[in-house]
Design a protein that fits this description.
Largest sheet: 5 strands, mixed
Number of strands: 12
Bound molecules: zinc ion
Structural class: alpha/beta
Distance between the termini: 17 Å
Number of helices: 10
Low-confidence stretches: none
Shape: globular
Radius of gyration: 20 Å
Mean pLDDT: 95
Strand content: 15-25%
Order of helices and strands: EEEHEEEHEHEEEHHHHEHHEH
Helix content: 40-55%
Length: 319
């Protein structure tokens, strides 16, 4: 079975693993991203993780890796293999990561957007297996997304499509990091859920046991135990997510919507009301066809996606 080394450059952690064509991950290793170190030392650590993953996978009897796949947040230029200016890695400007990885490992390398690769991974080996059309929404520090449509991974004209976090859900609403106002990300990302709770507490509205600074996880837990302010924030979050996901379901008519990222650790508390809102809100056929599901691959999702990317590139070069 073919295998590829997969490297994931996240804002909080670096990960590496060797991925085989059945989607299994061998020698998975993770380390925190020391963002203040800048690109040089972080890439050195990333490549060390890659070598450790190869050693561990080889010890498990996995056949030698034939390529390298790299996952990172955008903006990036996948065709050129360059990290243009990733929003989660300040100061990384035009880093030629593919050329660096090819020199380091002596293997062909390829690069793509982390949320795009997570969509690919979930469609091949996760919660949307066998679906020809699906989209993936990651709700974590920010909100990202990716889609497989009619069996083909969707990339967009410049390779950065699928930015579902920047759908306007409130006209003239909260400022967003992208420069516009009222984006879904400005309300429903983990960061934004916490900030909205802090602001509501400062405004001295509903009673609450929460004390700022509040995390999204604290809001979810307090809402689950009936805290009035936390419940209001959580319900508004679900309502806005429901609005945006319903729009996307109407536009794309997918078989599966997969939800991943840290905020989805709240499980049924997020999934059940959101799935109901989408089923009830979407237009007839689209609402009847869609299943909303939590992600199946957990922390390895981007590594599996990067492995699939590299294996697909190898298969294309052989044909
Ligand atoms: Zn935005």
């Amino acid at each position: 079975m073919d295998s590829a080394l997969a490297l994931d450059i996240g804002g909080t952690k670096l990960a590496a693993g060797v991925v085989t064509s059945d989607g299994s991950v061998h020698g998975f290793v993770v380390e925190p991203t020391r963002r203040s170190d800048g690109p040089g030392p972080i890439i050195t650590t990333l490549f060390e993780l890659g070598r450790r993953a190869i050693e561990a996978a080889t010890a498990e009897g996995v056949r030698a890796v034939a390529g390298v796949g790299i996952s990172c947040g955008g903006p990036l230029d996948a065709a050129a293999g360059v990290l243009v200016n990733p929003l989660h890695l300040p100061g990384w400007i035009d880093v030629p990561i593919v050329a660096m990885a090819e020199a380091e490992f002596g293997l062909p390398a390829s690069l793509d957007n982390d949320a795009t690769l997570a969509a690919l991974a979930e469609q091949r080996h996760g919660a949307a297996r066998e679906a020809r059309s699906m989209f993936y929404l990651t709700i974590s520090t920010g909100i990202g997304g990716g889609a497989v449509l009619d069996g083909v991974l969707y990339r967009g004209a410049a390779g950065n499509g699928g930015e579902f976090g920047h759908i306007t859900v409130v006209r003239g609403g909260r400022p967003c990091l992208c420069g516009r106002r009222g984006c879904l990300e400005a309300y429903a990302s983990g960061t934004s859920i916490g900030v909205r709770a802090d602001e509501a507490i400062a405004a001295d509205g509903l009673p609450t046991s929460l004390v700022p600074p509040v995390t999204a996880e604290q809001v979810a837990n307090a809402a689950a135990s009936g805290d009035p302010l936390a419940s209001a924030i959580w319900n508004e979050t679900i309502e806005l997510l429901g609005q945006a996901v319903t729009d996307l379901v109407n536009i794309l008519e997918p078989e599966v919507v997969v939800l991943g990222g840290g905020v989805t650790r709240s499980g049924a508390q997020l999934l059940d009301p959101l799935a109901r809102a989408v089923r009830e809100g979407a237009m007839g056929p689209a609402g009847a066809a869609v299943r909303v599901s939590l992600a199946g691959l957990g922390d390895t999702v981007c590594v599996v996606g990067a492995g699939m990317l590299a294996l697909d590139a190898l298969a294309a070069s052989h044909s």
